[in-house]
Amino acid sequence: CEVALGEFLKEIKKNPSSVKFAEMANILVIHCQAADDLIQLTAMCWMREFIQLAGRVMLPYSSGILTAVLPCLSYDDRKKNIKEVANVCNQSLMKLVIPEDDEMDETKQSMTLLAEPTSEESLSKPEAASSGESGLDVTALNQPLSFPCSSERIPVTLNLDGIVQVLDCHLHDTSIGMMTRIAVLKWLYHLYIKTPRKMFRHADSLFPILLRTLSDESDEVILKDLEVLAEIASSPAGQTEGHGPSDGSDARPSPVELHVPGRAGQLSSSGTKGLECSPSTPTMNSYFYKFMINLLKRFSSERKLLETRGAFIIRQLCLLLNAENIFHSMADILLREEDLKFASTMVHTLNTILLTSSELFQLRNQLKDLKTPESRNLFCCLYRSWCHNPVTTVSLCFLTQNYKHAYDLIQKLYPLGV
């Protein structure tokens, strides 16, 4: 059977233009999830060839393919061959997503040559695969081969809803391996780069799980997660009003509240008053402020995360986003923080990063020279929040060369034993 399938695949590769790739895609998705290693490897090899030969014709089956491929990326060395082929399938499928997919209107979905498979077809494992039957359905694969020439095809339109649902389910699954989580985050980042307008319809439903992923044990997972969050917070596509969860998306309830500001300069949140955006900092989209508020909420509710990864997360964000914008917005938020102990701890963390981190070198130089209105405005913003912690207030004065004021503060604080 294995030899026969190999010969059949060779014939397909010799004459791919006459093959009904789409009609056989679901069969491969089913067997790529088989319990038998040989069946799974064979089906995965076929899937790899189909993606490379058929190209975007396979896009409507992306959700099913990802359901089968992503778990394989975390296989150990005992299933090394399956893992390697699955990785090629994943990379090849990702390359099929192009910027033009973001420009296609949803009304063109009904005009596509190939329909998206149903969730039962693409996401579930049929009995034939799970019961470990002896091989692929050669009869089903060996159908009359015919395919219209490329000039007669109607372009395939990418349907993101199914893909995002699969990626979201994998992020919520705490049992999946590290490499699978990294692959999911790479997919999300890739989709936000290639199709930002459509992806922002899913931003509200994805935001809570992306924030929770910051507590992952793996630094590499956190780095990829921060890249996705930074892209959401800085993409111009996020400035458009009216983005919400798409119809039919599986939006899970979350303790994290997400509030989109009514206008760019003001932010409303429970326990947080209006926050003014610094005129000296680049304008971010509305998700940036939402991100800053909810990141601080997460640090407040999960102090271990702040202690072990807080500095790491903030330093990486300063590389991915604008450091001045991050410090300015966090200082404004902390100024209105009701938990004074947390505010003091958070200010101390930010101050340590500001004084010692290589990522903040430019910002330190900006604060050392208070000759511009922008630098003075930043100093005033930081100073108000830094007052939550007396020591950080004095150190900020030293950094900005306000030595006389630092001396006056020490004189007043000394009787208090600070």
UniProtKB/TrEMBL annotation:
Pfam families: Vac14_Fig4_bd. Residues 114-134, 234-279 are annotated as: Disordered. The keyword Repeat applies. Its main location: membrane. The keyword Membrane applies. It comes from the Eukaryota. Keywords: Membrane, Repeat. Coiled coil: none annotated. One of its GO terms (biological process) is phosphatidylinositol biosynthetic process. Forms pentamers. Component of the PI(3,5)P2 regulatory complex/PAS complex, at least composed of PIKFYVE, FIG4 and VAC14. VAC14 nucleates the assembly of the complex and serves as a scaffold by pentamerizing into a star-shaped structure, which can bind a single copy each of PIKFYVE and FIG4 and coordinates their activities. Interacts with NOS1. Scaffold protein component of the PI(3,5)P2 regulatory complex which regulates both the synthesis and turnover of phosphatidylinositol 3,5-bisphosphate (PtdIns(3,5)P2). Pentamerizes into a star-shaped structure and nucleates the assembly of the complex. The pentamer binds a single copy each of PIKFYVE and FIG4 and coordinates both PIKfyve kinase activity and FIG4 phosphatase activity, being required to maintain normal levels of phosphatidylinositol 3-phosphate (PtdIns(3)P) and phosphatidylinositol 5-phosphate (PtdIns(5)P). Belongs to the VAC14 family. This is Protein VAC14 homolog. The gene is Vac14_1.
